[in-house]
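Dig into these lines:

——
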Amino acid sequence: LVRERGRRMQFWGDIVLEHPELIGELPRDAVALNWGYEADHPFDAEGARFAAAGVPYQVCPGTSAWLSLAGRTGNAIANLASAAAAAGRHRAAGMLVTDWGDLGHWQPYPVSTLGLAYGAAVAWGLPANRDLDVPRALDLQAFRDGAGVLGHVAHDLGDVHRETGVTPKNASVLALLMLFPERALGEGRLSGLTVEGLERASARADEVTAPLTLSRPDRDDGALLKDEFALAADLVRHGCALGIARLTAPGGTVGSIAAARKRALADDLGRILDDYRRIWRARNREGGLAASAARLETLLALYRS
């Protein structure tokens, strides 16, 4: 059906990798999309299988922006460089840098820029760009910030979550705290959180974004870029505040947080929600906003209950 329409089929390659004996039976005019989003994804081993069978394939790493609030810089860079290296070794047909919006797409638009830009750099020239000065490249080529601020904000804010000491796969723990506020602390991907780690993360977010007002992006959307990074930082700090409040509450639940503290959290999230809706509408279509904001509204309702 695809061929009849003058097209070429692409398909996600993970399922056939579970049945490697079938790889050789794949049609040679279809392209396998070899996706993986963690720093240690085995692109090399998986690419070798497709190459050995003569099946054309592309590597598909990601920006690591989704489920992060402000990015996961270290993971993104390692994931993208690993994919590009494997693509070169096994003569992949290309590199597709993916960017997702799981569970509401809370990360503002420019959070994805680092992964898209670094992915482009290593796809075209890995040896020259593996150790690229990413903040400087972002300021020159993406944000056009003559003050050299936004590149560092994008890079460093994306690693703030690591200050918590808890680094689950495919998400930042700060996003998970807000998305699943009734999930038990100390279990699964929320295990290992400490007040000290969350305080470090919140303080680091303050430090990273302090120079935002000094940035001078030479773009029509320059003011919006600043607002978007400020929003990402606000979301990060709120995740920290929620985690600290729960860890210090007698029962560890949102319901067990003291009333005054819950009111403060509600006031903060209400302000963030107003900014969130305004910033969404400044760049995106209306469609999706209600469903996205509803996930924040659920948390707000918990505070107010």
Notes: The CA atoms of residues 67 and 190 lie 14 Å apart. Strands lie at 10-12, 31-35, 57-60, 94-95. The longest helix spans residues 222-248.
